[in-house]
Structure formats: C-alpha cells, structure tokens
Amino acid sequence: MARRLGVSQRSATPTSRVPQARLVRTADTPLPGETIAAERAAAITRAYVGDFFDLQLKGIPRPLLDGPSRAYPEVTFQHP
Predict the structure, then answer these.
(1) CA-to-CA distance for 28 and 73, rounded, in angstroms?
(2) What are the respective helix, strand and coil percentages of the chain, to the nearest 5?
(3) Among 6, 31, 73, 74, which lies 20 to 30 A Cα-Cα from 63?
(4) Neighbours of 74 (CB within 10 A)
(5) What domain of life (predicted)?
(6) Secondary structure of the chain in HEC code, one letter for each residue
(7) Using CA atoms, how far apart are residues 45 and 3, in angstroms rounded to an integer?
C-alpha cells in the first residue's frame, strides 16, 4: 500500500509567521514591473554584453560579471 506524504493543517506554519521580503525603492532602482529609461537600458545592455564577449571570446576577466555592481543597481543576479 502506498503512503501519502503531505502536510497536515495542524503542522503547517501559518503564513503570518513566515518572514516576508519587502521591496524598497532606492535612488535609481525601479521596483519589479516598473520601467527604466531606454537610454539607461541600452547603456546597461551594452556594458554587460560587451563584458560577456570580452570574457568569452578574448579571455579578458570582467568584474562586472562577478556580481552586483554599484554602477548598475537595476541588475540583479540569480544563483541557482
């Protein structure tokens, strides 16, 4: 006979006790779903794409790709 695994109502943690993350706007950082100026988006894209190709094609290390940058606070890094 197969066992069903699950969480009972009594053992579940109420969502009110789970810490909630808050998103706070800083100087030039938009919240998710907001937009940034086209010129700013193009500058960010040029910087990251250029550094990516320098690293991958020329072997030149680029610290911009190592993690968050003060120059581009709009960019977040996702680590699996």
Answers:
(1) 7
(2) 35, 5, 60
(3) 31
(4) 14
(5) Bacteria
(6) CCCCCCCCCCCCCCHHHCCCCCCCCECCECCCCCCCCHHHHHHHHHHHHHHHHHHHHHCCCCHHHCCCECCECCCCCCCC
(7) 51
Q: Give the whole-angstrom CA distance, residue 72 versus residue 9.
A: 44
Q: What is the amino acid identity at position 16?
A: S
Residue type, 54: D
| Residue 49: band (very low, low, confident or very high) from pLDDT cuts 50, 70, 90 | very high
Alpha helices by DSSP H, listed for 1-80, are: 38-53
For the cut 60, the answer to whether the pLDDT of residue 39 exceeds it is yes
56 touches 48 (CB < 8 A): no
- Token pair, residue 36, equals 């940034």
pLDDT > 60? residue 18: no
